[in-house]
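Predict the assembly for these two chains.
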Amino acid sequence: MDVKRIKFERTGGFAGMRIAADFELDDLPEEQAEQLCELLDDVDFDELPENLMKANQVPDGFTYTITVESEEGQHTVTTSDISAPAKMQPLLELLYQIARQRARKK
Amino acid sequence: MHNHRHPIHCIVPPHMLKEIATNGTQAQRVIAIDTLKATARMRGQRIALADFAAATFRVEAVGGKDRIVYDAKNGSTLPGTVVRKEDDPPSVDVAVNEAFDGSGVTYDLYKNIYNRNSIDGTGMRLDSTVHYRVGYDNAFWDGQQMAYGDGDENLPVGERLFNRFTIAIDVIGHELTHGVTQFEAKLVYSYQPGALNESMSDVFGSLVKQYQKGQTADQADWIIGEGLFTSNVNGVGIRSMKAPGTAYNDPVLGKDPQPAHMKDYVNTVSDNGGVHINSGITNRAFYIAATEIGGFAWEKAGQIWYVALRDKLTSSSNFQQCANLTHQTAGELFGANSLEQQAVKKGWAEVGLTVDGGTTPPPPPGDGCLGSLLKLIGAAPSKTG
């Protein structure tokens, strides 16, 4: 997967604060970009179902929406804390950190 | 006892059994779950209980206050490793003790003031998991238990915005109240019913804190999540019930988005339709009613809201219906045109909702069919009013 651009959004949670980021892979420091690509490969991002939510909303749980644009096209996955597979957690953590860093710079 | 053939086998369709397995009393649930399992075995199926009744197996207890605190050790697997049980001495881990003590005070408020034995009313064990994931600035109720993150402990001190989520006892009361709502009004977690679900959790979360501190309505700060922010944030807490929209205003986090009046109601699909946003409106109605009544807010205003949550509100109730039903409840508990009922009316009026006190609302749906079935099988309905 030749990743070009990523959109990330986290909504809900106890505090109800939305945080989002929209960036080109080239915008990231090289080490972070490599880490992100590895994590996307680890979860076979392109193969994940678009809807990774459970039927019932968990009160105060986060909802995550991730869109990855690559040469091959674009794929969006929506998931939550309890429905995301364990192997996806490091990806969610890194994307949130990136979003935080970018919010701080603005 | 469970082997005899119960009439429930013959007359109750599976979808209704699932309803009973989720929402019935403990005795009803045991029967319903046994029946579902037996039915599934007969059909050669494996039954997925997780969505409706796993909690029944994992966290049932008979008797009084019973708590377990688990440690997820920064992983995402719930519940994690047991670190403190009901009769254990305090831990060296402050988050463990906060989760334990906070759920204890919440249990005490519901038991001592509202005569409710735990989340489900029948002594359900209170399970909490601390140290959930890494850099997790949140707490939630997963339908069976509470889970608490440590804030952004993984960032340099100067960049941290959130402390551990057990630090604020009202957060603990908030999460446990999601459990109470799940067993009572079952407010759907989106749009207005979802905002009411959130507001009920803030109301009783705040009451847990006021109860612990022995504060009257005018002594309380009515802040939700005081202490959650680090000193890097310009804010006093996550929400203000007294003045929604004023809890924080920060360069990184932005401004508290809560409206305080219906005229500022936020239409959004985000956050399940703004459940943590529009709850400010109903939070403020409670604050005004409680302050008008005076004294300890949990005694009268809390009793009115609790009875409405337990007996009146339904899964689809909206703000206007909540206003009408709390007003009606105040009349039933304290008398028509009593000071208490007038205070409730005033609370709603000040957020832009005029109570309709002239008509008696129809009985909540859901009790009718299921209730008569439960009577048929000789069990009392879960809502006894």
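Chain B touches chain A at residues 51, 75-78, 133-135, 137-143, 152, 155, 159, 165, 171, 174-175, 178, 189-190, 194, 197-198, 201, 225, 228, 238, 252-254, 257, 270-272, 275-277 (CB under 8 Å). Residues 1-17, 35-61, 359-385 of chain B have pLDDT under 50 and may be disordered.
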